[in-house]
Design brief:
single chain, alpha/beta, seven-stranded mixed beta sheet, globular
Length: 239
């Protein structure tokens, strides 16, 4: 929370314009996704820098050349999505839990990105989100979904990846992009405002041929292992 307040304080001059622009861009009939996403992508480096955070990114060359893929990062905290939006040039769509859908600014971002809001306690609604994602990915949209379902609250350790999170990728037969986030939890979840470097590593994608015939739980375990191995290698001797 302290770092969020720092970001707000150091952006007081810009905030009125940004807020006006964000509310304007919520008119999805007037502004296309590229325009809406471009604004978020443009201001994100400024916001992050004012929070005394540096982003170390690798593997952008691993992103599929064609749109229509789903990214699966580990989930450490509220900063995760900001790091991805800052480093990912192409428009993306997020999957967010229903508990935050009415939070100020997050509500507007959900509208701007036409995000899918999921209620994990409602099986029917969750299935509808999976169907929506499948349709939209086939149409060329890129998604991020946190397969752990909630932030781990265990630093750079992962929770179990849920097999159901991979159903949309299986149905769409699309590329799966594992993403390893390191130290992202330190941004908003530790109460510190010290200078911080967050690592984000885009891993080589798994194409349909790589996971064809596998169960969703097997895919989830495979992706989790890829991310865990990357985090272990990158943090060796650090933690």
């Amino acid at each position: 929370m302290k770092r969020i307040l720092l970001m707000v304080f150091r952006s007081l001059f810009n905030l009125p314009f940004w807020l006006i622009k964000i509310f304007q861009l919520c008119n999805i009939e007037k502004y296309d996704l590229h325009t809406r996403y471009a604004f978020l992508h443009k201001i994100m480096p400024v916001i992050i820098r004012r929070g005394r955070i540096k982003i170390h990114v690798t593997g952008l060359e691993n992103l599929p050349s064609e749109n229509g893929y789903i990214m699966f990062p580990n989930h450490q905290g509220l900063f995760d999505a900001l790091a991805i939006i800052k480093t990912h040039d192409r428009p993306l769509v997020t999957v967010m839990k229903k508990e935050i859908k009415n939070t100020f600014l997050l509500k507007q971002v959900i509208t701007m990105l036409e995000a899918e809001v999921i209620d994990r306690d409602d099986i029917r609604q969750s299935m509808q989100v999976i169907m929506n994602m499948t349709r939209r990915v086939k149409a060329g949209e890129n998604f991020i979904i946190f397969a752990e379902g909630t932030r781990s609250k265990q630093g750079n350790s992962l929770l179990e990846f849920k097999g159901g999170s991979f159903k949309s990728a299986m149905n769409a037969k699309c590329p799966i992009v594992p993403i390893a986030l390191i130290d992202s939890y330190k941004a908003f979840d530790t109460g510190s405002i010290r200078k911080l470097t967050v690592q984000i590593h885009y891993m080589k994608p798994l194409y349909y041929e790589d996971y064809k015939g596998m169960k969703s739980t097997e895919i989830a375990e495979m992706v989790s292992n890829i991310i865990s191995k990357k985090i272990k290698n990158e943090t060796a001797g650090i933690e």
